[in-house]
Amino acid sequence: MKNSTKIIVIIPAFNEEDSIGLVLNDIPKNLIDKVIVVDNNSSDRTAEVANAAGAVVVEEKQKGYGKACLTGITHAAQYEPDTIVFIDGDYSDHPDEMTLLIDKLQSGFDMVIGSRALGDAEKGALLPQARYGNILAVTLIKLFFGFKYTDLGPFRIIKWHKLIELGMIDENFGWTVEMQIKAVQNELRIAEIPVSYRKRVGVSKVTGTISGTIRASYKIIYTIFKYLFV
Questions:
Q1: Nearest to 95 by CA among 13, 156, 149
Q2: CA within 20 to 30 Å of 105's CA: 112, 155, 156, 174, which one?
Q3: What does DSSP say about strands 111-115 and 56-59: parallel, antiparallel, or unpaired?
Q4: Please, what is the angle between helix 175-185 and helix 210-228, to 10°?
């Protein structure tokens, strides 16, 4: 049965031609009104594969995870959504579990984070640098902002008007932590639920490289302290 709530899925994607079709195929289409794939200056066939799978493809030349998400939000506005789901294009999350996030949100929450830490993560899916980086980040958020998260997982759902009220601005690695801190500061009703996690298709552009790990870690910690003094 089609959900009465208008739900838009936003997928930032950079060189994910081997995985984006798998992601799109597993999204529960009976619940979703539109899927927007933001092609973040890919050099492969990501856009072509996504278009063939029925997604709305939006181009964003400026590289950056947050920038792609922001572009997706701007494009989604024309559809007047009630709810936005964010999920990565690498097939590490399980798109079919979107129903779990939707159900949890509709039980009385404003934002729901899919927690890999609480769920079933395939061995080797979460690299040590990502696992320990998450632990450090959520510990600092608990210490400084008083809310206990378990993960900065990219698989998340949020009510549209609450998302807009957050005034998201980060254009790269600080995107997820910015949203979670601002959600606490804006007193959103927040929940986490366990989600499954598997090894991504291909190599991570962030934790798969030393330079990516360092840059992401720095930006996440910087963002936490930035909003501590806002």
A1: 156
A2: 174
A3: unpaired
A4: 20
Token pair for residue 137? Answer: 């980040």
Cα–Cα–Cα angle for 220, 10, 224, rounded to 5 degrees: 15
Question: Is the separation of the CB atoms in 20 and 200 below 8 Å?
Answer: no
Quick check: 57 and 21 in contact, CB under 8 A? no
Tens digit of each residue's pLDDT (9 = 90 or more) over 108-146: 999 999 999 999 999 888 877 788 889 999 999 999 999
Res 36 pLDDT > 70: yes
CA distance 1 to 30: 6
Structure-token match 């063939």, residue found? 52
Order of strands across the sheet with 111-115?
Answer: 56-59, 34-39, 7-13, 83-86, 156-159, 111-115, 190-194
Q: Are 113 and 153 in contact (CB under 8 A)?
A: yes
pTM of the model: 0.93
